[in-house]
Hints:
The protein contains 1 helix and 7 strands, in the order E-E-H-E-E-E-E-E. The strands form 2 sheets. It has a 5-stranded mixed beta sheet with strand order 2-1-7-5-6, covered by helices on one side. It is globular, with a radius of gyration of 14 Å. Strand 5 and strand 6 (68-72) form a beta hairpin. The protein is mainly beta.
Amino acid sequence: xxxxxxxxxxxxxxxxxxxxxxxxxxxxxxxxxxxxxxxxxxxxxxxxxxxxxxxxxxxxxxxxxxxxxxxxxxxxxxxxxxxxxxxxxxxxxxxx
Length: 96
């Protein structure tokens, strides 16, 4: 008998910091990063940061997605072939 709780979502592959990661279609990029233990970015002090609010308000989940810096990953579903960079030089916060 089939499991009624089993997911029927297709598996996709996205690249995070040069490493291919498999996930289910429809998962947010923030969820993919959290499941892989990868922080979204580093603070100016070098502290790892990741999704906090999960609804796009805190901006802690920012990463570069397909070349677009400061993308809120908690609001963006992962798609096959996406390229995510969690702390490229161009995405760093300005020094204060």
